[in-house]
Amino acid sequence: MNETLVQQLSFVVTQRRQDEATVLAQALREGIKSLYRESIIEAYLLGQITREQALKELGTEEFEAIEYQRESLRRDIEWGLKNV
Fold it and tell me: 18: left (phi > 0), else alpha (psi -120 to 50), else beta?
């Protein structure tokens, strides 16, 4: 999207028929939630929090997807190193 942040905010306010403060508060909550999730994933992958902590925070489905991605990456690296 080429719209500026102000244009995007204006569009959301109009579409949702909410005042700007309400939209900004929701955006802040959603942004923090997203950053928190990313931070939990990073901490888990770096070994800074336990598997149990990550599973509790992320939920089973998302945690299993992360584990699958990590395992796939590990297999790809192993395959690549064998074929060097």
Answer: beta
Tokens matching residue 53: 């902590």
d(CA 20, CA 33): 20
Residue 4 burial class via C-beta count within 10 angstroms: exposed 0-12, middle 13-18, buried 19 and up: exposed
- pLDDT tens for 47-62 read 999 999 999 999 999 9
Q: Chain-wide mean pLDDT for the chain?
A: 95
**What is the tens place of the pLDDT at every residue in 36-49?**
999 999 999 999 99
Number of helical H runs and strand E runs in the chain:
4, 0
| C-alpha to C-alpha distance for 34 and 61, rounded to whole angstroms | 16
C-alpha 54/C-alpha 50 separation (Å) is: 6
